[in-house]
Amino acid sequence: MAEIVIVHDEAAAGALVADEIVRLIGADPATVLGLATGSTPLPVYEALRPRLHGVDVSRVRGFALDEYVGIDPAHPESYRSVIAREVVEPLGLDPSRIRTPDGSADGIERHGEEYEAAIAEAGGIDLQILGIGTDGHIGFNEPGSSFASRTRVKTLTEQTRRDNARFFDSIDDVPMHCITQGLGTILRARHLVLLAFGEGKAAAVAAAVEGPLTASLPGSAIQLHPHATVIVDESAASHLARADYYRYTYANKPDWQGI
Ligand code: F6R
């Protein structure tokens, strides 16, 4: 199963993941990162900033998980803009090495395959950062998504559109469709790191980690992965039946093991 790490706060989670990313880049300057958007990964990007001072990031590559379909790429809430603003610019990454799925309607039926080919050509994703939706989605793989799915267009649930309305003027402005890496795409990354903070995520986290493996809860797909790390704060951990065991395991973890 996934390793569950319960931390005090978001900053502690960000530091853990950032340390691992810096270690990866030190070992391989051409590390390929899988980048999530939304609020959850922000502490990771913040923690990376000081840690990357003096680190050569010129060969680091990155692939965003998803993008809204039909949104103007220049819109401040397009994931292309978010990745540029929150990741590429502050961390000094080379914009030509960071990709977001193309959400423009023109040729959308081909974009998924092109994206898969680009990930394969980069050698696959070394570390995939994930958040989780309140309905259990990872990427934008909404409930019912196949565990074998690849990058493709999906329809966002009403719940996800409501959750994401905070980034827009109103729910009516939240796009109806998205293009997202599939669950099968995500499962091919070499290391999955799923983060969740706050009580609102507690039910989804417990279902993903301790519930049955089911397409009805796409986050449960991480149970299939040989190296998945779930980092949660106390509130997001509050529905976990075996929280004490996870704390005990982590407290007794051998020093030589990273996350
Ligand atoms: C974003 C993504 C989504 C979010 C999820 C949680 O790229 O793939 O799965 O991680 O919707 O969103 P936040 O972090 O805003 O709560």
Short description:
With 259 residues, the protein is of the alpha/beta class. Helices cover 33% and strands 16% of the residues.
Can you walk through the features of this model?
This protein is α/β, with parallel strands linked by helices. It has one domain: Rossmann fold. The chain contains eight helices and ten strands. It has a seven-stranded parallel beta sheet with strand order 1-10-9-6-2-3-5, with helices on both faces. Strands 4-8-7 form a three-stranded antiparallel beta sheet. Helix 7 links the parallel strand 9 and strand 10. Helix 1 crosses helix 2 and helix 2 packs parallel to helix 3. It is globular. The two termini are about 15 Å apart. About 45% of the residues are buried. The model has no long low-confidence stretch (mean pLDDT about 95). The structure holds fructose -6-phosphate (F6R). Fructose -6-phosphate binds next to loops.
List the helices and strands and how they pair.
Elements: E1 3-7, H1 10-27, E2 32-35, H2 42-51, E3 61-64, E4 66-68, H3 79-91, E5 98-99, H4 108-121, E6 127-130, E7 152-155, H5 158-164, E8 177-180, H6 183-187, E9 191-196, H7 202-210, E10 228-233, H8 243-251
Parallel strand pairs: 1-10, 2-3, 2-6, 3-5, 6-9, 9-10
Antiparallel strand pairs: 4-8, 7-8
